[in-house]
Amino acid sequence: MERFKIFLLTVAVSVQVKSQDSTTEPPVQIPKPQITLNVAHKVLYKTERVTLSCEVTGGPPGLQYDWYKNSEDLGEHQHNITASDSGKYECKATKGAMSEKSDSYTLTLEDPPQPQVRSDWTEAFHGEKVSLQCVIQASENWNYMWFKGQNKIVSNDETNIQGNTLTLSVQSSHDGEYVCQAVLQDRKVTTSMSTPYSLTVRELPKPELSITPEWKTFYPTEKLTLKCSVKEDSDKWGYEWFRNGAPLPKDKDKDISFPGNTLSISSAKAVHSGQYTCRGRHLKRTPVTTGETGAVQLLVYDTTPKAAITKREWFELFYTEERVQLHCNMSGVGWKYHWYKGTNPPIINPELTINSVSHAHTGDYHCKAQRGDFSVNSKTLQVRVQARPPASLTLETELSDIMTGDMTLRCNITDGRQWNYTWFMNGQQLNESSNVLKVAGNEETIKSEFKCKGRNVVRPLYSALSDGFIANNIIFKRKILLAISGCLVCCIVILIIGCIVLKITRKPEVKETPHTDLFFSMTDSKNQTASPMKEYIDSSPTELEELQEKEELITDRTSVVHEDGVIKDEETPASEANGLTSFKGR
Ligand SMILES: *[C@@H]1O[C@H](CO)[C@@H](O)[C@H](O)[C@H]1NC(C)=O
Ligand SMILES: *[C@@H]1O[C@H](CO)[C@@H](O)[C@H](O)[C@H]1NC(C)=O
Ligand SMILES: *[C@@H]1O[C@H](CO)[C@@H](O)[C@H](O)[C@H]1NC(C)=O
Ligand SMILES: *[C@@H]1O[C@H](CO)[C@@H](O)[C@H](O)[C@H]1NC(C)=O
Ligand SMILES: *[C@@H]1O[C@H](CO)[C@@H](O)[C@H](O)[C@H]1NC(C)=O
């Protein structure tokens, strides 16, 4: 504008001069001087050196100049002066008595404005690209300089200065205060430093990936959840999921969803197997992502096998008192096992152990492996229990035993197999291993309880234990019987001897008196001689009857003894009967 005015004035003056020239011969006149600047900048700054020239167009030679600033004589007499202050400048051209003053020229030198640092970041994550701008309220073509603290920043791999923008690939060393300065290189104008701008560099948080439940192999339809979490400022982060390194597509699989920081698989399938990773993505600064987490390797099986039942010593048929051990096993971890028999409440244990099986344990067993809502059943196993072969203990009555007072006990197991035997007296095991036990009948043994059982090398390894047997007064009775029998035999022998003696001593009498009643007496004598024999013969049945009666008596007594519960343990009457049969059968 200023320049334009000057130009107009110049034109006006020259036109005037020309018109004067053309009209009359000039009395020497000095044209009005004009003050011009050597620069055309719109804004001039204090640090600049500006040259003001006093132009007198077409003036006579030998002009003298005077300069005034704010109407004060500067004492400068050059055609041009260097000004470094704002003010109202005037110049005067003088020749002889003539002089002409220019219009005043107002020179304004401004302080350069202070630049400001602007940025969207006050904190930045390591690796993030951050830009700072140096902003100055002036339209010149400034150059910019950046300083971190006292040090001038030069462009390198991590810093780049382009125009007024400083771009940082943030390193932890970039944490600090930044200032900038604008420069007009050719005019030697330098602004003051901006106010410091503080940038905080933060390390990128490391997200953590966890899985619930904590195992990593799954069966179809199981549920699981992966959780990705950035600990600090967790609300500022979103999450991205990857399977085998590729981003998981959204909405492609209805069984997978990943809202918030979790990835939920509502029903596992084999295709869900793979390596899962995740990373955090800053919600505000979208290009900012954390590194990926370590991978969780998931394996989802194609099919669900049945829970395996492991049987220890499994037999189609168990004998009572044998041990039944069933083990339920499902591959993988986290299983709880439940054992079921029929509709009974479950037994919660991976192992079902019945230490001494009985008939009541017969039934169908199965187990269920369970974790979370998911469960798998095993096959059904049938446990069947049968009784052990019974052992029966009998007392044998042999003549030699009756004579010596011994007892012969026999153990009989009637399943047709070969057995070895174990004998017990009052619960104490004896050395005998054959099926017959001979014991001397004495005070102690007749009161003792005997039992036997079979032993074998193939199952069943032993038979049931026989009922207990207590001889008690059987031996005593036997002795009485023996005594009675002995007496009877003695009597008979005595009788026979008596008869013989009689016969011999009567023989002469018979010869001396042979008369009519000889026949009679013969018959009589016959009767008489026959008498002892006859008596014997006649008496024999009665004596035998007596004997039998006694036996019966004894039998009754023994049965009474049995009934009295001396042999309390006896439950099978067969054994009792056996014992008695054997006794009777003598
Ligand atoms: C100012 O004056 C000096 C001496 O008269 C001269 O050398 C110089 O070129 C002048 N500068 C301008 C911009 O006119
Ligand atoms: C359970 O089964 C797995 C294989 O399916 C096997 O490795 C493991 O030893 C079994 N565990 C038991 C206690 O039997
Ligand atoms: C064993 O008992 C059975 C029937 O109980 C019988 O038939 C068999 O004769 C007995 N054996 C002996 C040696 O007593
Ligand atoms: C059984 O026999 C062994 C030797 O074979 C002997 O040392 C032990 O004393 C016997 N036990 C009884 C109760 O007789
Ligand atoms: C009985 O015992 C003997 C010797 O200990 C053994 O050799 C045999 O196999 C056993 N027999 C049975 C049927 O247990």
UniProtKB/TrEMBL annotation:
Single Gene Ontology MF annotation: transmembrane signaling receptor activity
Keywords attached to this entry: Disulfide bond, Membrane, Signal, Transmembrane, Transmembrane helix
Pfam families on file: Ig_2, Ig_3
First and last residue of the signal peptide: 1-19
Name recorded for this polypeptide: Titin-like
UniProt keyword Nucleotide-binding present: no
Record-annotated membrane-spanning stretches: 480-502
GO terms for biological process, alphabetical: cell surface receptor signaling pathway; immune response
Region (Disordered): 565-586
Domain Ig-like stretches: 33-108, 113-190, 207-289, 305-386, 389-466
One Gene Ontology cellular component annotation held by this UniProt entry: external side of plasma membrane
Domain of life: Eukaryota
